Design the sequence.
């Protein structure tokens, strides 16, 4: 799987950073190129992070990103290579946990092939998984030894703190897995109550102290974080009823959790044969319970995109099912193995699309050709302050060229003040001269808005130039939610406003 990801990056420059990647990388890019730790493309909605100090998200990801870009540069390929390295580290931790704590006699091939479900890599979560998985390794080691130590407890606490301060939701997920695994070990009298609480209370205490210190001594950082928090949909809409596409995303992304639920009656019937005192059983129970909790929250409260946060843990759950199947009966083991092969097929759909359709797109519209196109389209904006909306994957190149006023396409209007015409009103207020968009951003976000804007011919003349030599999945409604974001070909939209603002 790692070789596949390396080949995909080298030969096709995939996976292409998604629509919000530069929101996390832009401050470091701006610091290295202009000496200010801010992310100006976000300034329309986030004035603190865009013009004063970047505090858009927890800071755990920023230092590793800075160190990486100091060595490898600020290009989009540099960012993609960083996330490939993070994926390799997290995957190594998963395999290390399996090799160290799970039964060695079982063939885990179907579980390992679930790594093909990892087709995006452009967010701080990639680093948070490393901290979280490392904490699970320490938890399992303490359960296995039955002699918890204070050094290991503090190691778990510090790793969980780093996970929480890299991506809060991911950190809470691994916190839950580790705590529940410890609770299983305590219930089976493998560990005392002291271990169950010490590292997790310490992690919460350190997190609270650090947060209070930021609020008290760096209030601008805290205000910058709240600036972003106010824009999150979870704080605006509350609970919701899962839709059809939410269920489809769940089945496609985390099918092993659904398989585990279906297997529970069999497990219950053979409960006396369960390895209740082992570290791997404690991890499996922790992953299952914490994972189901997060998936339920994703379906009803958080963004459905957070389903991907369980992908590394899903591999541990799959390994646990294979090991349990061997303990129940050969027939059960065979059935569960075939079911896991079906799960591999489900999670690999986008990987297949990237390797086939994506490779063809890269052949016809390569990353190198797109760099040339971006240079031609963005060159006028290096000498003028006119706003130009540039997709996240292209903003790295915009900074290389010295574009003066790039706008992130996710944040040209205030999401917290959402109305039926918020996007249209935002474009009319901003009056950008040009949009340089990925296929994903154009077809998924801007096409409906531009159709509305075409109805206002007294305001603007719109010219669209789609550079794609091969039709992309993003342009086909029936494929949009199956395979996305696999072409570098930009869509360039020229906007000739009848009454342009004075710059």
Sequence:
């Amino acid at each position: 799987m790692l070789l596949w990801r390396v080949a995909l990056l080298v030969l096709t420059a995939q996976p292409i950073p998604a629509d919000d990647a530069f929101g996390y990388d832009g401050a470091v890019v701006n610091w290295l190129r202009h000496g200010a730790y801010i992310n100006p493309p976000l300034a329309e909605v986030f004035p603190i992070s865009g013009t004063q100090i970047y505090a858009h998200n927890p800071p755990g990801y920023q230092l590793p990103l800075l160190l990486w870009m100091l060595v490898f540069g600020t290009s989009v390929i540099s960012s993609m290579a960083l996330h490939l390295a993070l994926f390799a580290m997290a995957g190594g931790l998963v395999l290390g946990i399996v090799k160290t704590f799970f039964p060695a006699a079982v063939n885990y091939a179907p579980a390992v092939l679930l790594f093909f479900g990892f087709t995006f890599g452009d967010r701080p979560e990639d680093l948070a998984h490393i901290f979280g998985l490392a904490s699970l390794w320490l938890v399992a080691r303490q359960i296995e030894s039955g002699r918890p130590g204070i050094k290991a407890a503090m190691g778990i606490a510090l790793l969980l703190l780093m996970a929480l301060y890299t991506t809060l939701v991911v950190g809470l997920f691994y916190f839950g897995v580790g705590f529940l695994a410890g609770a299983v070990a305590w219930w089976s009298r493998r560990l005392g109550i002291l271990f169950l609480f010490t590292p997790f209370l310490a992690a919460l205490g350190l997190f609270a102290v650090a947060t209070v210190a930021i609020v008290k001594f760096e209030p601008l950082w805290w205000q910058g974080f709240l600036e972003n928090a106010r824009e999150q949909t979870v704080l605006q809409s509350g609970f919701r009823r899962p839709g059809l596409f939410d269920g489809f995303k769940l089945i496609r992304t985390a099918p092993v959790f659904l398989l585990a639920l279906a297997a529970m009656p069999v497990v219950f019937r053979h409960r006396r044969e369960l390895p209740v005192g082992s570290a791997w059983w404690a991890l499996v129970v922790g992953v299952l319970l914490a994972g189901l909790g997060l998936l339920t929250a994703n379906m009803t409260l958080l963004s459905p995109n957070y389903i991907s946060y369980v992908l590394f843990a899903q591999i541990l759950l799959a390994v646990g099912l294979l090991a349990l199947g061997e303990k129940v009966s050969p027939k059960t083991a065979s059935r569960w193995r075939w079911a896991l092969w079906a799960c591999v097929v489900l999670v690999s759909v986008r990987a297949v699309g990237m390797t086939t359709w994506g490779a063809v797109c890269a052949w016809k519209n390569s990353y190198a050709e797109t760099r040339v196109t971006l240079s031609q389209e963005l060159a006028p904006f290096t000498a003028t302050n006119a706003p130009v909306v540039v997709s996240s994957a292209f903003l790295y190149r915009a900074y290389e060229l010295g574009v003066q006023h790039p706008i992130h396409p996710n944040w040209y209007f205030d999401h917290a003040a959402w109305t039926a015409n918020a996007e249209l009103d935002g474009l009319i207020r901003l009056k950008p001269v040009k949009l340089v968009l990925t296929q994903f951003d154009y077809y998924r976000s801007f096409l409906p808005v531009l159709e509305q804007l075409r109805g206002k011919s007294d305001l603007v003349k719109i010219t669209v130039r789609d550079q794609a030599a091969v039709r992309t999945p993003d342009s086909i409604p029936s494929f949009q939610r199956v395979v996305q974001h696999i072409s570098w070909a930009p869509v360039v939209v020229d906007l000739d406003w009848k009454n342009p603002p004075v710059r």
Summary: The chain has 23 helices and five strands. The longest strand covers residues 460-466.
